[in-house]
Amino acid sequence: MSSSYSNYTNSPCAACKFLRRKCTSDCVFAPYFPPEEPKKFANVHRIFGASNVSKILQEVEPHQREDAVNSLAYEAEARLRDPVYGCVGAISVLQRQVLGLQSELEETNADIMRYASCLGGETTSVYGARRG
Amino acid sequence: MTLKGGTSGACSACKYQRRRCATDCPLAPYFPAEQPKIFQNVHSLFGVRSIIKILENLDEAQKPEAMKSIIFQSYVRDRNPIHGCLGITQQLQYMIWLAEEELKMINSQLQIHRNNTNTWQYHHNAHNQMSHEIGEKLEDVTSQLNLGVGLMVNNNQNNTIPFFSPLPVFERQPQQPQMSYTYSSSEINNNCYSSPVYTDSCKEILTTNNNNVDASLAWGQNRFPYHHNNGFSNQNEHCNETKSNNGVTAIQSQLVNHQMVSNQQDEVDDVEYDEIHQFLEIIDDKQSFPDTKLTYASSSGESLKERTDETGESELRSAATCFSLTSVN
């Protein structure tokens, strides 16, 4: 990633900029908080704090850190926009949708079964007579 | 009941921080001393200062709901440090997509059968009319059609409505989420639907590591590439956007390794979090949850080719079996 070089030779990462510290070559935030996205780190820092984020990143494998940062960024932004429910509100909405779709599937399946049984009775009488 | 004052009666927040739990400790109502893991999770993710800051800006009535969501979010992050709640969101979206596809297929089948039935009935009525007219002229003539049609004639004549009420064409009504949702687990259980994945989807997602996780992973990778440029936007036309009132867009990242590990050692935690999975079932309507618009750009998808050949009964039955309720496991 170019940002991993940029923190050493060029501008510091968004995290180090925000924290006003020197961005070293082994900065744990640098690959995931490029200087072009200052808001991303600002949100994450505001909700979770830099030390918590750092601990989480160190707990996961390096190839999983990008996903971890993205999910944290999403949750932070959701919490900022909705301080009461955060991203959990969206989960609730989706759960409702799932339930609604399931009941709809049930009804439609019941209809198709009814159709099959009704049509089966009629075709027997009609086609059976014709062939009989 | 947590006794305040003194280290022996301190809430788990104050115990963790090794400080005196004041009588007006803002965290005491939410972190009972006998459930230290709850606060540990919250502390690991949010931190005390952040929680207090969040609570300070809320009304008294909103604080319990906010804390419930924070506790849930922390619990999920503890179970899945990589994806947290975003993982659950994506799995739910995957389930929704599966269910919608299934509904599309079933409705297409129904439409085909309905069309076939209408065509058959039209021709049947025409034959019936003809044979009736012939029968009037030649009383002793009976046609094979009459033999078979007789049943139908009687049925048709006696029925003022078709034997099979035409179903309305399925149009997915985009759900307009209300401010917030209140529904109890009993409401879910009273539905005939019994698949555990849906009735208690979040807990199932959290505790089950199954093939569906891999499926939703692969599905998410193909359909929801994460775009780094904007950070939060998803340009995939098939993406399901989860938007808050102010337009938070769900990030669809390329999931490399999405593990929902079932931790047997978490039995103790499960006891402690017994009420957490029910949290999602009860979100007070009257809270401040802003409008969350859930927009779907459901895939135009592949439309089923209409079969011109008549579908026999066996095919109907097999279709019904094929499209029976499937739990996403």
Automatic annotation (TrEMBL), chain A:
Residues 11-112 form the LOB domain. Coiled coil: none annotated. Pfam families: LOB (PF03195). It comes from the Eukaryota. Belongs to the LOB domain-containing protein family. This is LOB domain-containing protein. It comes from Brassica oleracea var. oleracea.
From TrEMBL, chain B:
It comes from Brassica oleracea var. oleracea. Residues 295-316 are annotated as: Disordered. The lineage of its organism: Eukaryota, Viridiplantae, Streptophyta, Embryophyta, Tracheophyta. It comes from the Eukaryota. Belongs to the LOB domain-containing protein family. Residues 303-316 have a biased composition (Basic and acidic residues). Residues 9-110 form the LOB domain. PANTHER family: LOB DOMAIN-CONTAINING PROTEIN 27-RELATED, LOB DOMAIN-CONTAINING PROTEIN 4-RELATED. It holds the Pfam family LOB. PROSITE patterns: LOB (PS50891). This is LOB domain-containing protein.
